[in-house]
Amino acid sequence: MILASIALVLALVPAPEPVTWQWPLTGAQGVVRRFTPPPAPWLSGHRGVDLPAEPGTAVHAAGPGTVGYADQLAGRGVVTVHHPNGLRTTYLPVLPSVRKGQQVTTGTPIGTLQGLDPPHCVRHCLHWGLLRERRYLDPLLLTGAGLVRLLPHWS
Question: How far apart are CA 4 and CA 16, in angstroms?
Fold first, then answer.
């Protein structure tokens, strides 16, 4: 009886929608520079991926969430999106078209690529980052294109 009641309740509660992810740029999906995490959090590394694009290119939210930051930081535009699964994506240099607190869905335009002189990369690019709390992750994992690396386990 109790199991039947639980089954009925579970059948009436809708399952959460799966989060779908996409590339933040349309068109070619090349990578100029891949994610290279540092061996320790305080050391240098490349904490994201660089995607080639020309200034003025539209940048889109990679997944649904709430804009956490959309403004200038250290002379370049930055947009961050907080996702319901505890992840946070970052996009720079981007001239924001969204505001803090705004809800976005996968594919919502969040701004346009800003031209930097000199550019961040050898040519102009979008730096796309992914974090869970304070830990940087490879954003290509969201699209199935990331490199999976096993880390040692310490007690």
Answer: 22
